[in-house]
Amino acid sequence: MRLTKRGEYALRTLIRLGIAERQKEGVISVSSLAEQEHLPFKFLEAILFELRTAGYVESMRGKYGGTRLAKPMKSIKMGEIVRLIDGKLAPIGCASETEYEKCTCPDETHCGLRMLMIDVRNAIANILDRYTLENVVEVTLRKQEQCAATSKKTTKKKASQTRHADPSDGFLAVLLDSVA
Of 80, 110, 114, 154, most Cβ neighbours within 10 A? Predict the structure, then answer.
């Protein structure tokens, strides 16, 4: 599975709307959302249209209009959004539950690659379907608070410093850190 830009932007937008709801900001204009998340305005409009059509967000018209969540955050599973925007979670078509495609393998039933990719799909689905938007918003806000507290105690790192994906920056690491 590879999350497309469309899928990434949809998830980031929903998380930002969830944060706005949690912080009682009300509706957020599309231009403000695009600016805050560094997203192309027209692309964001198309994504919001799709999310609105599916019932995840609603729009308010007028001078103080904008977008807000249409469903409670706890009822929005991250896997639902990825499937809505990007389709199947499986890395290859013959491992997909929702968009199965016959593969070119001569013996699909005993194909080791297919079996491995089914496990990959299951692992991805288990994580994405376990967590709701509420969980992700909560962890995001917690991480922001931790970083704010840390930056007060230490000097800032150089902005030009390259960052790499560190396992300690992961969602589960932050979630489990709060439990400990």
Answer: 114
